[in-house]
Amino acid sequence: MNEMSPAPAPDAERKVPPLPPLFRIGKRFRHRISALIAGSSKVGDTPTYDPRLFPWIAGLEARWGEIRAEVDALLAREEGIPPLAEISPDHRRIAPPGKWKSFFLYGYGYRNEENCTRCPRTAAAVSAIPGLNSAFFSILAPGAHIPRHRGVTKAILTAHLGLVVPARREACRMQVDEEMLTWEPGKALVFDDTFHHEVWNDTDEQRVILLIQFRRPTGLLGRIVGGLFLAGVRRSRFVQDARSSLGDWEKAMQKLEREP
After folding, report:
1. Where are the beta strands (DSSP E) in 118-250?
2. The CATH number of the domain where 77 resides is what?
3. Region of residue 15 (phi > 0: left; psi between -120 and 50: alpha; otherwise: beta)
């Protein structure tokens, strides 16, 4: 769920579909919904957050070596990992063709059993996260640029756990609002993706993170409003189509695993 600002020129070859009705409605009332959730937030309403506000992050960071080992095994069969734009039509507006791949363990509350079996230690680590919405490995190719965009709901926050980080860290960076961030192996960043953010990998190395979306800690009103919105997204055709696309890529990964 992302909103471009400003919107890029249409690219017919990428066949970007129109936003589903749920998202158009969500965007229309985004400010009102966000205001209700932000007013109920127990951690404030800022672009970035101190990871120490979320006790589970320390445990995740402690397991980063196990998680990194599972990523290394996946990267040996990287051709079986789908570009994000091919499984999430909404991301075609921002995903560089073929340069941003994703390996989903959880997506909008749905658990991908095959991928969790391939990465059991990572799956165990993320399954313990309170309010988990999505968890996937995000693989950004050398030279990739994800243009300025933002999410549409404050119901969730985003965490990035650094796994494979280019040596020139300052050249692989993310701007959230006015703050420039870089990744560090084994360390997490937390931010609110409803603030504009943009990513550059101006290096000749891959960047790989574990991207986690989790429910924002809120009071009762925020939980109700955010829960209703996320429940609608989870049942939308947008998410169901993405699950079907993942099934097609599962066949490709199984074929690679059968090869000697």
Report:
1. 132-140, 145-150, 156-164, 172-176, 179-182, 188-191, 197-201, 207-215
2. 2.60.120.330
3. left
Element spanning 118, H or E: helix 113-118
- Is residue 227 situated within a structural domain? yes
Of 136, 80, 94, whose CA–CA distance to 111 is shortest?
136
Spans in the chain with pLDDT lower than 70: 1-30, 89-92, 237-238, 240-260
| Structural domains counted in the chain | 1
Structure pTM? 0.84
Q: Residue 94's pLDDT is what?
A: 75
Q: 143 near 98, Cβ under 8 Å?
A: no
Identify the pLDDT of residue 175: 98
pLDDT value at residue 193: 96
Amino acid (one-letter) located at 242: A
Sign of torsion, CA 89 116 119 108?
Answer: positive
Q: Judge whether 194 lies within some domain.
A: yes
Tokens 């994800």 sit on residue: 146
Please check whether residue 164 lies inside any domain of the structure.
yes
What pLDDT, on a 0 to 100 scale, did the predictor assign at position 63?
97
**What is the structure's pLDDT at 241?**
64
Cβ neighbors of 136 (< 8 A, separation 6 or more) are: 102, 103, 104, 105, 106, 107, 210, 211
